[in-house]
Structures are given as C-alpha cells and as structure tokens.
C-alpha cells in the first residue's frame, strides 16, 4: 500500500471516527448547563459541567499525547474509547442520583475522551505530504458535520427515554457512541514510530517552540478561536431557555451551530492552499466578531440561531487554519510535544472561559457575554494579518 493510499484510508477511518466521537461533545454542551441548572445548588455553577468537560480536554491532552507517542495512535485511541464509555455512564448515574458532583465527574471524563478525538485532525496529517496536510485536516473535520447531526438528534430523541429522569437516556447514548467507533479506529494505519519520536526530549523543547513566533501565533490563534466559540456556545442554550425558547429549540440551535462549525470543512483546505493559512484564519476571526454583532441585535430565535451559525463558520476557518499553522512548525520528532502543548493551551483556556460564561451570564446577562469577545479577537487579528502579508519564522 503506497503512502498516499494509506493517507486516503486513514482520512476515511478518522472521518468516520470523528463523526461518532464528535457527537459526544454536543450532548455535553447542549445539556451540561441545563442539567447543571437543575442540580446545582449555586446558580453561578450551572455551566461548571461544561467547564469541566473543557478542563478534562486540557488535562487529557498531554497524557494522551504521551500514550500515543509511546504506544502509537491506534492503541491510544482504544484507551480513549474507555474514557468515552465511562463518561456517559457516570454522567447518567449522576442524573439518576440527583448528584451534581457525580454528573460533573462524568462530563470531566468526557473531556478525556475528547482529548483523543481532538487529535484525529493531527493524525490525518501524519502520512500526508506537506501540500496535502491542510486538506487532510479539513476532510477529517468534515466528520464533525455528521457528529453535529448525531449529537443533538440523540438529545432530542433520548432525553425522555428513561421515565422520570430527563436526560439520562441522552448520556447513556453518549456511552454507546465510543463502542461503535472502536472497530473503526482499529482499522487505522499509522507510520512506524522513529527512534527520535520515541525519545521524550528529542528535538526542540517546549520553551524553544514557544519562542518561535509562528508557533506562538498558531497556538494563540487556536486559543482565541476555540475560546471565543466555547465562551458564547456554553452560555447560549441557557440564555435561549431563560429568554423563553424551548429546550428543543436550544438543542436545534446548537445543531445549526455545529453544522456551521464543520460544514465549511469541505472547502476550508482548498481556501488555505489558495489564500494562505493566516488569511483564512483572520477571516474566521472576523466572522466570530460578526456573530457577536448579530447576538447583540436582539433576543429572538433568529438572532440566537444566526449568531450561532456565524460563530460556527468563524470557528471552522480560524481553528482549522490555526491547526494547519501548527503542523508547519514542528519536525516529526517534535510532533507529540508541539501538538500536545497546543491542545493543552487551547482547552485549558476553553475550560476557563466556559466557566466564566456561566458567571457572566448569571450576573450580567447574554449581551455582556457577547460584548466581551471583541477585544480578544482584535488582539489576534493584527499579528495574523501581519504574518499573512510579511511572514515570520
């Protein structure tokens, strides 16, 4: 089997796995705040389950990178499946026992599973030639389009499946998804590990990578794009329900948001090849700002859904662009640490802002949430445009 046929095979495998693994996150994000509102004694904690999902992502990235570096991506993904199954079962148990903290433990473990799912995009680039890396990443992210449908639809069809305990069925279905993904992941074929990759301290150190302007900008762009998206999306379902919209409409709003997040992946790779990664990332940042403008325009269903759709498209362009920028900044020997640290920073920031979203929504309202995204976006746009025009090392 040639290198390119392996690449095509892996893209297909990882796209299917992304569709199933990517469906887990929207279940947590659609219901985490609502279950938190139902179980938490302190209203400022209502988005803590979603925040802990982000914290699990952040904490899980480094050990996931270590396991995959030592034992290979495929074996690491089997470990991730275990976290995925346990997370859904524990979250369902927390709801059944009306225990906020057990439920939070489940969403936290879902983040560990998510750490492995998030690495699928990097795994797609492992066997791709340089010119195809951006397209490989983009195509695997297309799998999230199916996940964007599967997750919210599972919420709608299973949230009342267990009589007397709303949402238990949704988290039981979340536990089933990784098991379905397991035989697909076992079909993955990754390149043999080199001696350099097996040595933890090979290549540049993390500090040396962070001293590299291009890598630092790529990480910062990923942090801002994912952080802004998570900040707004975490608060959106609760804000919609609080302003008179139904739970189903809130779940559908997240579905449209997720479709917008992954739908553009069909052409994002081609856009980056034609216009450059930095320029595409910058356009994504502008669209994230546009989502805030729409949200500030009113509290109707069209405002919420329109804002969430723009938020998704902006995230797609900016986050996939930032991911492709990271792959340009490291050697194969540095792959684990460069990608692991990138995801650590991205998801640590996501955990922090998603918790902050609940507090701000409770204390200052939905409009305050949206006003706060503009300074962060402005801060990253200037160096992105500068690098897109002049470049830096």
From TrEMBL:
Stretches that traverse the bilayer: 12-32, 44-68, 75-93, 99-116, 136-155, 167-188, 215-234, 254-273, 280-298, 304-324, 344-362, 368-386
Pfam families referenced in this protein's UniProt entry, alphabetically: MFS_1
Keyword Ribosomal protein attached: no
SUPFAM superfamilies: MFS general substrate transporter
Gene3D superfamilies given in the database record: MFS general substrate transporter like domains
PROSITE patterns attached to this UniProt entry: MFS
Domain Major facilitator superfamily (MFS) profile: 206-393
InterPro entries: MFS, MFS_dom, MFS_trans_sf
PANTHER family: MAJOR FACILITATOR SUPERFAMILY PROTEIN, MFS PERMEASE
Protein name per Swiss-Prot or TrEMBL: MFS transporter
Organism from which the protein derives: Pseudomonas lactis
